[in-house]
Amino acid sequence: MRRIYVALAGLQLIAVLAQFYFAGIGAFDRPQTSDSYELHATLGMMAIPVLSLVITVVATLVKAPGRLIGLSILPLGLVVVQMLIIMLGRALNDGTGNTTAASLAVFGLHAINGLAIMAVAGRVLAGARRLVSADGAAPRTVTAPVP
Ligand code: HEM
């Protein structure tokens, strides 16, 4: 079961990497349309939150330390922050929907928070791998034969 935890944590890190890749695709898409960031938005709103939730349940089942369980749910919380950043940025746009200095300052935080999500996903994977190696290093109980 702990190996499943490692596999899911690895999948989450790959999903976060893909999230950056899809942001790049959106940025280079011409002409910019409402679909330019569709892959990015779908992966961000669906896959990463669901993975984070499942990973947290598995972390509980494999009796991971409380800190690691907390880290496992953090990507879900940080994705909510990603959406709040975009909502706040849009609210600070001008009346015609164009960006303002204030909205751009807020939108920029989306990239920084994305880095935070990647760092957390990396730490969850490292923690999950440590759990598996701790399993391997655990001393085995040897029962001496009764003479
Ligand atoms: C783990 C990292 C990231 C996550 C989880 C994430 C998540 C999201 C989500 C859920 C949306 C859709 C929001 C909505 O439509 O309400 C979104 C949109 C967007 N993201 Fe990200 N994002 C990440 C990283 C990035 C990065 C690194 C960039 C670019 C540097 C970026 C640029 C954008 C842009 C331009 C949009 C479209 C905003 C719009 O439609 O107005 N994201 N992101």
Please give the structural blueprint.
Blueprint: H1 2-28, H2 38-61, H3 66-91, H4 101-137
Helix pairs in contact: 1-2, 1-4, 2-3, 3-4
The protein binds protoporphyrin IX containing FE.
Residues 16, 19-20, 23, 26, 37, 40-41, 44-45, 48, 79, 82-83, 86, 110-111, 114, 117 line the site of protoporphyrin IX containing FE (HEM).
Q: Can you describe what's shown?
A:
Pfam families: DUF6220. Keywords: Membrane, Transmembrane, Transmembrane helix. This is DUF6220 domain-containing protein. By secondary structure, the chain is mainly α. The protein has one domain. Helix content is 78%, strand content 0%. α1 runs antiparallel to α2 and α2 runs antiparallel to α3. It is elongated, with a radius of gyration of 20 Å. The two termini are 38 Å apart. The mean pLDDT is 94. Bound molecules: protoporphyrin IX containing FE. Protoporphyrin IX containing FE binds next to α1, α2, α3 and α4.
